Amino acid sequence: MRILLVEDDAPLAESIAQALREEQFAVDIAADGETGAHLGATETYAAAVLDLGLPKQDGLSVLRGWRAQNRPLPVLILTARYGWTEKVEGFKAGADDYLTKPFRVEELVMRLRALVRRSAGHHGPRIVCGRLTFDAQMGGFEFDGMPLKLTSFEWRVLSCLILRKEVVVERMDILEQAYEGDAGGDSNSLEVIVGRLRRKIGHEMIETVRGRGYRLTAGAA
Amino acid sequence: MSGPLNSIRARLLISGVLFTIVAVVLAALSIRPTLDQFVRRNVDASLESQISVLARAVKSDGSLDQDRIQSVGPFVRRGAGWAWVVKGPAGVLRSQTVAAVEPRQGEGPPPWPRPERDRDRDRMPQREMRPDKPPTAPLKESRRWRSRSGWNESFYFRTLTISTSRGPVTVTAGAPRYIRDRMRDEGLRPLLLSLGVLGVGLLAAMIGQLELGLRPLRKLGASLAAVRAGEQRRIEGKQPRELDPVVAELNALLDHNEQALAKARSHVSNLAHGLKTPLATLAVRLAEPGRDPDGSLASLIAQIDGAIGHHLGRARAASPGAPGRPALPVRSRLDDLVAALSRIHAAAGVRAELDVAEDLYVACDPQDFDEMTGNLLDNAWKFAERTVRVTGRREGARVVLDIDDDGPGLTDEAAAAALVPGSRLDERGQGHGFGLPIALELAELHDGALTLGRAPIGGLRVTLALPARSAAEA
């Protein structure tokens, strides 16, 4: 799961990014509205965290721009402005959630996970695929009822697959969700990660769809 | 300016009344001679027509053609006082009135008898009127009567002198003065009455005009009052052209004030929001494992955030002070503040001494109380060498807190300046100047007081008094 964080205050952006990475998220930081608008319009993110008071282009207009381009990206507004008027304006511009500064990191993480889950079409927090269970709210995987230990990359790839279970997920989409903007991943590294995941949850659960990508499936069912 | 001239209405009214009176009086004065002239012309016409009738009766030899002598116009009215006299070589012939009283020689026109005395003679006008009666008095010449017209004290007359072969014949016709006066007065009375009515009418019109003219000013005043009461934002409605610049200026001033207020609010808002981002960073960093094991730092952040939010809200609402303030335990609030400040200023090594009883309560908004005492304590901490001392006691209906430090203190001038209301907002310098005005403002909002003095331990003593509450109300 890759998150776009649009925040001009560098210390805050770094702190949030670090806190989110602790929770397995991949994070791209945009320090101004223009960069944020561009990244959100061209890259694929699981969700965006958007500050409102931004240089070059303010947050609300960035958000309106995305919505005008029909970007479905879930957006959480993170701002010091806490008045109801501002909240209403944020939602009218197309925000999916709203959090005021200062905030608790856990709350931000929870809200982001909920946003991602809902945008993938899951109503409940638990997503089950065969013997594999994903607690989309707490972020934990269980296999046969036992917690599954995963690296960040493994978690990102597997969460991406389970959110769209039984559907072929394009290789490119998985890579975009797994790697941060400047890190860049390739098919080979993805194959390595998928191989490691197969060893943990069983070969048959992750199908390779030649020339396209991968599909997480309950298997025989 | 004072007195009646301090009012536009009075000024216009007084000047209007004066001008009207002067104008009416001048008109009245100028009417009188005009009317005199008019009346005289009238009288002249009557006299001349009588004279010309009589002149026609004068024959070339100076004798009178008795048949042609007759009275015309007003002369036929007996008792009216009109009279004529013809003097010539043949003697003197008078109208019936003349016959009774002879004019005294050399004294100008004869003193014609007054009409009321003529009344008895009115009964025999025809006979008297007839000039065929031979003159009873010898003909006497009087050079004084040769003037064409003139006055004696009670008579106006005109004279025509005709030359005849036997000498000059003078034909004189006259009217008593009172005739002229009566005619003039008859003309004058309605005219003066009209003038009076005109004057009164003008005054009434002026009052009405004042009423009408000053109404826009009253309306403007009401409009301004409505602006002040917050019922309207600007001065609305159509104004007379003359008031347009005033209204434009007033509206510009209102706009300017509004902008200044908006600017001030936006500054407050920017300050608050500016604080929130680093606060958020702080909160995120504190959330990292091991940084804040007991959560006390996070609760401080929450406290700061609460204070920011509170004042942001106040700046937005611009309606400070809520009714029904709870009874606030002073001691426990101060304990919390002192604990926080001890950490904030941990490096300074200042020791805090609290001598405040547990049972002191004040009627104050908790966040405002924290804001006041927090600012004051913060100042004390900044300036203290080693000790900050807080003593609290109840004095009548108030709780009084002395917040002392052992720092350099303030000079009397600096202390006075620190509390000047005007310096509240623009004092942004270091030290006492920042926190004191805020604390003072809040204290006043809560019906309290804040004074500066000298602390027994050497530095500044800030005395904060707030309305007391009993513990039962807590």
From TrEMBL, chain A:
GO terms for biological process: regulation of DNA-templated transcription. The keyword Disulfide bond does not apply. The modification 4-aspartylphosphate is found at residue 51. Keywords: DNA-binding, Phosphoprotein, Transcription, Transcription regulation, Two-component regulatory system. The keyword NAD does not apply. Coiled coil: none annotated. SMART domains: REC, Trans_reg_C. This is DNA-binding response regulator. It comes from Caulobacter zeae.
UniProtKB/TrEMBL annotation, chain B:
Its EC number is 2.7.13.3. Residues 100-145 are annotated as: Disordered. GO terms for molecular function: protein histidine kinase activity. Residues 270-470 form the Histidine kinase domain. Its main location: membrane. GO terms for biological process: phosphorelay signal transduction system. It is found in: Membrane. The chain crosses the membrane at residues 12-31, 190-210. It is an enzyme of class 2 (transferase). Residues 114-133 have a biased composition (Basic and acidic residues). InterPro entries: HAMP_dom (IPR003660), HATPase_C_sf (IPR036890), HATPase_dom (IPR003594), His_kinase_dom (IPR005467), Sig_transdc_His_kin-like_C (IPR004358), TCS_sensor_his_kinase (IPR050428). Keywords: Kinase, Membrane, Phosphoprotein, Transferase, Transmembrane, Transmembrane helix, Two-component regulatory system. It catalyses: ATP + protein L-histidine = ADP + protein N-phospho-L-histidine. Residues 211-262 form the HAMP domain. Gene3D superfamilies: 1.10.287.130, Histidine kinase-like ATPase, C-terminal domain (3.30.565.10). GO terms for cellular component: plasma membrane. This is histidine kinase. It comes from Caulobacter sp. 602-2.
